[in-house]
Amino acid sequence: MTAYDAIVIGTGTAGGYLADRLGRSGMKVAVIERKLLGGTCLNVGCTPTKTLVASAYVANMARRGSEFGVELDRSVTVDMKRVKARKDAVLAPRQAGFQAWLETNQNCTIYRNHARFISPHEVSVGSQVLTAEKIFIDVGGRAATPPISGLDQVDYLTNVSMLDVDFLPPHLLVIGGSYIGLEFAQMYRRFGSEVTIVEMGPRLIQREDEDVSIAIFDILEKEGVQIRLNAKCIGVGKQGNEIRVKLDCLDGPPELNGSHLLVATGRQPNTDDIGLEHAGVLVDQRGYIAVDNQLRTNVPGIWAMGDCNGRGAFTHTSFNDFEIVAANLLDGDSRSVDDRIQAYALYIDPPLGRAGLTEAEVRKRGRSALIGERQMTQVARAIEKGETQGFMKILVDATSKEILGAAILGPGGDEAIHGILDVMYAKAPYTVLQRAMHIHPTVSELIPTMLGELRPL
C-alpha cells in the first residue's frame, strides 16, 4: 500500500488542472488515468471536432465562392484523408504538451491503469493499492447506447469513432437531433455526404426555445440535410452493404437506408466500473455522482468533478469545477457551483451562443420580464459576410433590470454572447450594456440596439 496526500482519478480538464495545482501546493499526488491523458475535450471532443468543423467551413465557403466574386477552376472536392491528417496534426502537439505538463510536476505520480475503490480511502490500480485522505473523481462520460433492436448486429459510429473516419460516407444516417448529431450532420454534408437526421421528438435540440430549433432546422435543411422529426428508431439491420433503419413515425417512409450510421443519442457517466459502492458514494438514477454545491460527495474526503457529477457537460464547466474545488480547499475562498450561470455553444455554422435562461424557462417561472430580438438580416456585419441566417434575443427582469438570458444564433454568436454573460455575472442592470459604445461593424454592436427595443414578454 502506497500513501499519498491526494488521489485524482481521471485526467480530464478538472482532474488534470487540479492534480497540477495540488502538486504545486506541495501535496504528494497520485494521478490515475486508464486511457488518454487530457480527457474527452482534448482527445475526442472539442479540439478534434472543431478542427473538422473548420475544414467543413472552408469547403462550404469554397462552394459559395461565386457569391463573393471568386471563381474556381474546378468543382470543390474534399480529400478526407487530408482532413483527418490535419485534425491529427493539430491534436498531436496538444496531447504531447498535456502529458509533458503533468509529468514535469515532481509531486505528481502518474499511474496508467484502471482505478477502483476498495474503501472510502483506498483505491486499487492494477496490482497496487493506493490510499489518501482526499480523493477526487473526474472519470468523465461516454456515448450512451440506446436500446435499439439489432444495433449490436451492425457496425455503427459514435462521436469517438467518427474521428477515425478518413473517407466520405455516401449516405450518413444520424440517430439523434441534438448537439453532437447536428454538428456531425452539417459537417459531413459539407464534406459531400448525403445526410439524414432521425429525431424522435417534435423538433431538434428540444432544450432550446422553439424559435431557435426552427431556425436551426431551416439552416440545416437549406444545406441539403434531410431531417425526420417525430421518428423513433425502433430497429437497425443490414441490407446488403447498407444499413437499414426502421422507424416508428408520424410522417414519411417507415424505413431508411444509408451507408453508415452515427448514434448520437446522448452521454452517460463512466461511474459504473470504479467501485463506488465500496466507498459508499451515492449516484443518481442515471449514474451521476451526487455532489453538493462545493462538489463534495456524501462521503467526507471524496469529491466528484467534470461530466461524471451531472452538474455540467462541458469543458468550461469542468474547468470551473476545478476552480471551485481549488478555491475552497487551497485558497480559503468560498466558491460554489450555485454561482455559475449556464452558458454553452452549439458549433454548427452559424454557431449558437447561449447564456442563462431560455425564454421558455422565464415564462415557466412566471417572472415579469422584457424581451428584445434582432434578426441577422438586420445586422450589417452579417450582411457584409453573406451570413444572415439566424437571430439574437435577450431577456431582462422587468423589476431588477438584470439580464436573465440570451441566445445569439449567427456569425460569431459563440463569441458575442460573452459580453452579455459578463454583465450577468456582474449583476449589473442591462442599461450598462445598452449604453456601452461598441465597435462597428460587428455583431455585438447590435446588442445595445436590441436592448433599446425591449418589450414586455
Please provide a written account of the structure.
- The termini are far apart.
- It contains 13 helices and 24 strands.
- 42% of the residues are buried.
- A hairpin with a 5-residue loop joins β19 (343-346) and β20.
- α1 (13-24) packs parallel to α8 (315-331), α3 packs antiparallel against α4 and α3 (46-63) crosses α5 (179-191).
- The mean pLDDT is 97.
- The protein is an alpha/beta fold and 457 residues long.
- It has helices at residues 13-24, 39-44, 46-63, 80-103, 179-191, 210-222, 276-279, 315-331, 359-365, 380-385, 413-425, 430-434, 446-451; strands at 2-3, 6-9, 29-32, 108-111, 115-119, 122-125, 128-131, 134-137, 141-143, 171-175, 194-198, 226-228, 231-239, 242-249, 255-258, 260-263, 267-269, 302-304, 343-346, 352-356, 369-375, 391-397, 403-409, 455-456.
- The chain has a six-stranded antiparallel beta sheet with strand order 19-20-23-22-21-24, sandwiched between helices. It has a five-stranded parallel beta sheet with strand order 4-3-2-8-18, covered by helices on one side.
